[in-house]
């Protein structure tokens, strides 16, 4: 079962919820996948050991100019301006390439072969509590995160309980993380920004046909914007986590709330069992 | 003309609140919301939208079931698993590469440019705001960001506006690269935590690669003063100009709830601090060389 933790707005506490949920259920066989490959942070909290690192590449074209007849077929098929003929030379722009292999297929002289561009690293390790963590780390300067996100997700064992820590936003990276999830847990903060971005993510999830529920984070006990929205949309609120300076300090040090604050362990344990119950039902519904 | 982009690496550190404050403090500027898939600036800057335009992004393949003979050519060639075994294109998985279109022996696949969102031009008290709304689960956010910045530059040039302020997206990927390419400076807004530090370091490396000078602002600094001090040290060692720190202050959320920028809403400690950050950032950015373009 794949549960993706998402939010729309950045910094609402996706990673905090992911790692603390995983940490409060030892023995449940939870695996964590950090798909916020641009800025992965789960490893800071889970502290995996003996990590293995593997570079992940994507296909980009390489042109053999001895075979090329400058027919421009490659330039014509490419939708991304990643290959073009200038004077008597074919230029490639690897960072623009989407790896569709169109140029390679269309070249009548077989002058184009597959080369590669490094997207980033895939890293795996297990922490002292036995929680396995897999994450992607996008190479600084690389624009495309979705192919790396796909590679991280390819490591998911569908039989285990997998928590996917998603990236912020509602465009390609967020969609890549959310697709094929069995359930989405939305972490929202009760502010106008939080509400606006939550609503965008809910629309994306409806399009992807993923069942969902909400956790309100940094609840001030006053604002009802998320409650009102959730009631209108018929989305259940599974938990409310209060804002406290103590919690903020624990998180800032890269520590787990469930280890440092006993009350938080109770809240997360409760959330874990409610979530599992809902996700099971959501899965059946699908 | 100078262009400043506010970025953070980590999400939710306060980019938009800082941008909104700058947009209020700058006497004459264009402000751009480049966080196109989770745009928030419009929520905190009173504005009137005067122009709306569709944003045309990439193309999408669509198979006409009447013409399709289910030969399987497209299915075999698609690198994105976007075509199902019953020959329906998954609009979300389709990358818009056109390989299936090219190879379909029946010409059964259309390939139209898609409307991927909307672009807006609005007026605000201190100058124009250029913003957008990317459609749900749409692609091409980088292209949209580049278009918004281009429009902002044209407006600034025409009206002799000396400053463009860009509210950037989180992360370091495609829309972030599009937000800082050729900017005169980036202000990294971070928070004093292990995650903030980790993400700030990565976004600084990106700024270095793009040769854009970086300035640093630590938001909610008092939530972990020790970390904040480590960040200042990192800034000193890594050629980042330190623009100031902002204390945690509930007035920030209160101003957001009121739909106003912090500096307009409050005269509390965070408001005072952000005014000081603005003073430093304007002095740093005016010291940068003028770009030739």
* Strand content bin of chain A: 25-35%
Strand order of the largest sheet of chain A: 3-6-7-2-8-1-9-10-11
- The total of helices of chain A stands at 11
> In sequence order, what are the helices and strands of chain A, one letter per element?
EHEHEHEEHEEHEHEHEHEHHH
How many β-strands of chain A, per DSSP? 11
Number of individual domains of chain B: 2
CATH architecture of the largest domain in chain A: 3-Layer(aba) Sandwich
Calculate Rg of chain B over CA atoms.
22 Å
Distance between the termini of chain B: 10 Å
Helix and strand string of chain B, N-terminal first?
EHEEHHEEHEHEHEHEHHH
Observed structural traits:
heterodimer, A: 286 residues, alpha/beta, Alpha-Beta Plaits, nine-stranded mixed β-sheet, two-stranded antiparallel ribbon, 11 helices, 11 strands, B: 293 residues, Rossmann fold, 2 domains, 9 strands, elongated
Can you describe this structure?
The complex is a heterodimer of chains A (286) and B (293). Chain A is of the alpha/beta class and 286 residues long. Chain A is built from eleven helices and eleven strands. In chain A, a hairpin with a 5-residue loop joins strand 6 (112-126) and strand 7. Chain A is elongated, with a radius of gyration of 22 Å. Chain B contains ten helices and nine strands. Chain B has helices at 15-25, 73-77, 99-103, 141-159, 174-180, 194-209, 225-237, 251-257, 262-265, 269-287, and strands spanning 2-7, 29-33, 48-63, 109-124, 127-134, 163-167, 185-190, 214-219, 241-246. In chain B, helix 1 (15-25) crosses helix 10 and helix 4 packs parallel to helix 5. The longest helix of chain B has 19 residues, at 141-159. The mean pLDDT of chain B is 96.
